[in-house]
Design goal:
mainly alpha; about 0% strand; globular; 16 helices
C-alpha cells in the first residue's frame, strides 16, 4: 500500500520543488518525472500483480508459438482473432504479443511495453491539456484508472491509444481521431464507445437546455437502466457479442459513484460559466458521458469498465476548473481538498485489491 501512497504524495512535492527551481519549463519537468514514475511502477511489477495476468501470460506463450503465416491467417478486424479456446483476443493485441515474442521478449517484456504505451499518451494529454499537471496525475492514480492499468491489459492499451483521438479532436482533425479509435478497437472492441467525441464539437445547446436534457437522461438511466441493459443484451446476443456474459443487477450505489457524484457536481458548480468555452466544452461533455456510464455500471460491471475511457478526462477537467481560481490563490486550497478526499478513497478502495501489497518482478 505504501508504494501507492508515496506515489500520490510525491506529485504535489514535485510541483513545489520544480516551481522553486531555475528550470524554465516547469510543466514539462513535472509531467516527465511523474510519468516516468508511473511507468516504473507498472513496468517493475511482478508478473502476477494484476487482474487476469495469468490468462494474459498463457495467451502470450500460446501466440509466441505461432508462425508468421499462421498468425496472418488468424487475424480479423471486426471479430476477435481465431485462437485456440479459451483465448479470445483482438487482432491488434495478438500482433503486439507476437512481435514481442519474435524479438525474444518474455511476458514481462509485454508488461513493460504496455506500461510505456499507457504512460506516454497520458503524459502528452496532461502536458498539453492540464493547467495543474500534478493534480491530474494525482487524480489519475487515486481513482481506479491506475489500478485498471495493472491487469486489464487490452482495455488499458485501448484507453491509452484513444487519448490520441481526443487530442486530434481538439485540433479539429477528425479523420485522424477516427483512425486512433479504430486502432484502439483492434486492442479492445469497447473502444468504439469513444466515437461520440467526434460529434461533441458540433453540439450547440444553450446551457439551460443542456442541463435539462442531461437531467432527463440521468433519470432515464437510473429508473430504466435494468430494462435498457436487458434489451441491449438481446441485441448483442443476436450479433454474437459478449455483453450477455455480464450479469445485470439491481441498482446499487457504491463508493466510486458517491465520490464521482460529489466531484462532478462540484466541477459543474465551479465551472458553470465556462461550459460553453471551447477550452472546457469537450471535457464537460466527456464527463457527462462518464457519469451516465457509471450509472449503467451500477447495473452491470461491463459499463463500469467502459467508463475508464472517459474517466481519464475527469483528471483534466478538475484541475482546469480549479485553475480558474488561481488569482485568489484558491486553486491550491481546492486542490488539496480534492486530493485529501481522493487519497482516502484510494486507501479504502485498495484494501482488498490484488495489487496490494506491491511486488517487484525480481522479488
Amino acid at each position: 500500500m505504501w508504494v501507492y501512497i508515496v506515489n500520490l504524495i510525491s506529485f504535489p512535492v514535485y510541483a513545489l520543488f520544480f516551481n522553486s527551481c531555475w528550470i524554465k519549463d516547469k510543466r514539462k519537468a513535472v509531467v516527465a518525472v511523474a510519468s516516468i514514475q508511473i511507468f516504473l511502477i507498472l513496468a517493475l511489477r511482478a508478473d502476477n500483480l494484476g487482474v487476469d495476468l495469468g490468462n494474459y501470460e498463457r495467451a502470450f506463450y500460446y501466440i509466441s508459438e505461432l508462425s508468421f503465416p499462421d498468425l496472418l491467417s488468424r487475424l480479423r478486424f471486426i471479430k476477435t482473432a481465431v485462437l485456440q479456446p479459451p483465448h479470445k483476443l483482438e487482432s491488434g493485441y495478438v500482433v503486439l504479443n507476437w512481435f514481442i515474442a519474435a524479438l525474444g521478449g518474455r511476458f514481462h517484456t509485454l508488461l513493460v511495453v504496455s506500461a510505456l504505451v499507457v504512460s506516454i499518451p497520458y503524459a502528452r494529454l496532461v502536458y498539453y491539456k492540464s493547467e495543474i499537471p500534478w493534480l491530474s496525475f494525482f487524480i489519475y492514480c487515486a481513482f481506479t484508472c491506475f489500478e485498471f492499468d495493472f491487469g486489464i491489459l487490452r482495455q488499458a492499451l485501448a484507453v491509452a491509444i484513444s487519448i490520441e483521438a481526443y487530442l486530434c479532436v481538439h485540433k479539429k482533425k477528425n479523420a485522424r481521431a477516427f483512425f486512433w479509435v479504430l486502432l484502439a478497437f483492434t486492442f479492445h472492441r469497447t473502444a468504439l464507445v469513444m466515437l461520440p467525441i467526434l460529434l461533441i464539437p458540433k453540439i450547440k445547446f444553450k446551457k439551460t437546455m443542456l442541463y435539462s436534457i442531461y437531467a432527463v437522461l440521468v433519470l432515464i438511466v437510473v429508473i430504466f437502466g435494468r430494462e435498457i441493459l436487458n434489451y441491449a443484451i438481446l441485441i448483442s446476443n443476436k450479433y454474437h457479442l459478449s455483453l450477455g456474459i455480464y450479469q445485470v443487477y439491481d441498482f446499487q450505489v457504491n463508493n466510486l459513484f458517491l465520490v464521482l457524484t460529489m466531484v462532478i457536481a462540484g466541477s459543474i458548480l465551479l465551472g458553470k460559466n465556462k461550459i460553453k468555452e471551447n477550452k472546457y466544452k469537450i471535457d464537460f461533455y466527456m464527463v457527462f458521458i462518464l457519469y451516465l456510464l457509471i450509472i449503467l455500471g451500477m447495473y452491470q460491471a461491463l459499463f463500469s469498465r467502459i467508463s475508464k475511457y472517459y474517466m481519464v478526462y475527469l483528471t483534466i477537467l478538475i484541475p482546469n476548473i480549479l485553475h480558474i481560481y488561481r488569482k485568489r490563490n484558491m486553486h491550491w486550497i481546492f486542490g488539496l481538498l480534492v486530493s485529501a478526499l481522493l487519497l482516502l478513497f484510494m486507501v479504502y478502495s485498495l484494501r482488498t485489491s490484488i495489487i496490494v501489497p506491491y511486488r517487484f518482478f525480481f522479488s
